[in-house]
């Protein structure tokens, strides 16, 4: 897969994510609470939904940031695009096809994930 095709895919993904973030942004709502303040279960359900939506929005923003990073790298440092930011080795072609914004080769990504998993224990 050549860099021009990867750039096109990244630009399309950026557009898609930008639209999703725009749709997921919270709207100006009345902050006074639910319509029926005496229904605690309804209020709790609304809070859970808002937490879920906030998590989704955070995930979309993070992914958009990763795509922007990949586009900036491709535009500003094209010779370094497609190379692992940890070890400097070429990122596997299949990985870049699946995830053009990948920063790390599979080996470095596995090490990172196992480190994060150990910290959570």
Automatic annotation (TrEMBL):
- What are the record keywords, sorted? Metal-binding, Zinc, Zinc-finger
| Residue spans, zinc finger dksA C4-type | 84-108
Q: Where is the composition biased (Basic and acidic residues)?
A: 25-42
Query: Metal-binding: is it a keyword of this entry?
Result: yes
Region (Disordered), start-end ranges: 19-42
Spans traversing the lipid bilayer: none
Tell me which residues make up the Zinc finger DksA/TraR C4-type domain: 81-113
Q: Which InterPro entries match?
A: DnaK_N, Znf_DskA_TraR, Znf_DskA_TraR_CS
Which SUPFAM superfamilies does its entry note? DnaK suppressor protein DksA, alpha-hairpin domain, Glucocorticoid receptor-like (DNA-binding domain)
Please identify the protein, giving its name as recorded: TraR/DksA family transcriptional regulator
Q: Could you tell me which species this protein originates from? A: Thermovirga lienii (strain ATCC BAA-1197 / DSM 17291 / Cas60314)
């Amino acid at each position: 897969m050549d860099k021009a095709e990867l750039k096109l895919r990244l630009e399309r993904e950026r557009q898609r994510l930008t639209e999703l973030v725009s749709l997921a942004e919270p709207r100006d709502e009345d902050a006074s609470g639910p319509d029926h303040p005496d229904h605690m279960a309804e209020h709790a359900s609304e809070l859970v939904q808002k937490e879920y939506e906030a998590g989704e929005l955070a995930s979309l923003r993070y992914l958009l940031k990763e795509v922007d990073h990949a586009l900036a790298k491709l535009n500003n440092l094209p010779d370094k695009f497609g190379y692992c930011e940890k070890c400097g080795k070429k990122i596997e072609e299949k990985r870049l096809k699946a995830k053009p914004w990948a920063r790390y080769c599979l080996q470095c990504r596995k090490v990172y994930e196992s480190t994060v998993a150990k910290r959570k224990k």
